[in-house]
Design goal:
single chain, about 270 residues
Length: about 270
């Protein structure tokens, strides 16, 4: 693995994993604690429409995914807060519409889409320098917003009614949180792909929650576990010549369930 780090593509892969871990650790904590995993999955799948649009019109598919992810996040938030449509219904509708648009746009695009699978299932080994710059910029935006509004997000995450009583603009913060989820989804597309985004967004935080219930400590632990999983999965995929995104997810899931097993055994001994 050390020898492989001399190659530019492997250096970019490690940097991409570290940058993605920061975002998924912070935002994943809000997703788990507020129990909005299905919304995250809906945003991720809806972003496929933007990837298809990028192929069709000839601009970066990641930029297209960013536009669709933010648009679907705002759409889900507005529909669930301003109409009587149930949350899961709104998510299901926007999710399938985004996927359908993606399929249609790719069908209209001239020629063959050679790296389409890398957006669906991830390929961290093909992350270019331009995507690293975009990932760094999105990380800075996410960390900056969370640092500036940490207490407000804390109130919204645990008790929206209390937040409303003390004068916090709950609906605006909720939409802002969904937009940050959308930014995180775009960050993770290159690492694990649209299909597997939710796993990396939830597994590190689910493991961190086994050790602490303090929100800030949970974020730090989630970032750490995310880095361990991405770097460990990258190393295993390199050694055994298997898909990197799937290996990262399987490593994280295995560690999580192993921790559950150890915790159960320790509780039986007491």
């Amino acid at each position: 693995m050390i020898d492989a780090l001399q190659y530019d593509f492997m250096q970019n892969a490690v940097l991409a994993g570290l940058l993605a871990s920061v975002a998924c650790g912070i935002i994943g904590t809000y997703v788990i604690v507020k129990r909005i995993v299905f919304i995250s999955e809906g945003i991720a799948h809806a972003s496929f429409g933007g990837i298809g649009l990028g192929y069709w019109l000839g601009f970066s598919p990641v930029t297209g995914a960013l536009i669709f992810a933010v648009g679907s996040a705002l759409g889900i938030g507005m529909i669930t807060r301003k109409t009587r449509l149930a949350e899961d219904t709104a998510i299901g509708i926007l999710l399938t519409m985004g996927m359908a648009l993606g399929v249609m746009f790719i069908g209209l695009a001239p020629g063959y889409a050679p790296d389409l699978f890398s957006y669906l299932f991830g390929n961290i080994l093909t992350v270019p320098d331009s995507d690293l710059i975009l990932m760094l910029a999105l990380d800075v935006i996410i960390v900056g917003i969370v640092a500036a509004l940490y207490k407000e997000f804390l109130a919204v995450t645990f008790d929206e009614e209390f937040g409303t009583v003390i004068g916090i603009p709950v609906n605006i913060l909720y939409l802002l949180l969904l937009c940050m989820i959308a930014l995180t989804v775009v960050l993770l597309i290159r690492v694990v792909g649209i299909i597997l985004v939710v796993a990396l967004l939830t597994i590190p935080t689910a493991l961190a929650r086994q050790f602490t219930h303090n929100l800030f400590k949970m974020m730090l632990l989630s970032v750490f576990f995310g880095m361990v999983f991405t770097f460990g999965g990258l190393w295993l995929s390199y050694e055994f010549d298997v898909a990197s995104g799937a290996t990262i997810i399987l490593l994280g899931g295995t560690v999580l369930f192993a921790n559950f097993g150890v915790s159960k055994l320790l509780s039986l001994r007491r």
